[in-house]
Design a protein that fits this description.
Strand order of the largest sheet: 2-1-3-4-5
Helix content: 25-40%
Largest sheet: 5 strands, parallel
CATH superfamily: Response regulator
Radius of gyration: 14 Å
Oligomer: single chain
Number of domains: 1
Number of strands: 5
Order of helices and strands: EHEHEHEHEH
Number of helices: 5
CATH architecture: 3-Layer(aba) Sandwich
Structural class: alpha/beta
Strand content: 5-15%
Length: 145
């Protein structure tokens, strides 16, 4: 079985390392593209700038932080879910924000899940592993993704 790509939009380098380590434990880390801000995430998804020549295949999952530089995660979510080609892309908001307004707006914009990053290391690793196992190995995607 071919592991499909995960797009990780995260500006905190420590969180990136933890997420990659957690996914690697279940061999889910071999196809991860990391982008460090919302503008880079949109460029990747819309195949602009440095990503214009990337393959047209969409990732199987996007892990999206809300609090990012240049373009925040909510705006990324808004643009992706308003695009006919991208709107079926599963997006899990993985954020440190516990703000009720962020949670509500994320769901209004079409997120598939909203997960607050646990502060404790072991819990963080467990949550990320569970996300990877469900969204990459269990979840079924439409045939055109």
């Amino acid at each position: 079985m071919k592991i499909k790509r995960i797009l990780l939009a995260e500006d905190d380098s420590n969180d990136v390392e933890l997420i990659l380590a957690a996914l690697e434990e279940h061999n889910l880390a071999n196809e991860i593209t990391v982008v460090r801000d919302g503008e880079e995430a949109l460029n990747y998804l819309f195949r602009r700038g440095p990503f214009e020549s990337r393959e047209d295949e969409l990732p199987a999952l996007m892990l999206l932080d809300i609090k990012m530089p240049k373009v925040d995660g909510l705006e990324v979510l808004r643009q992706v879910k308003n695009d006919d080609r991208l709107k079926l892309l599963p997006i899990v908001v993985l954020t440190s924000s516990r703000e009720e307004q962020d949670l509500i707006e994320s769901y209004q914009l079409g997120t598939n899940a909203y997960v607050v990053k646990p502060v404790e290391f072991d819990n963080f690793m467990t949550v990320v592993k569970q996300l990877g196992l469900f969204w990459i190995l269990t979840n079924e995607l439409p045939g055109n993704m």
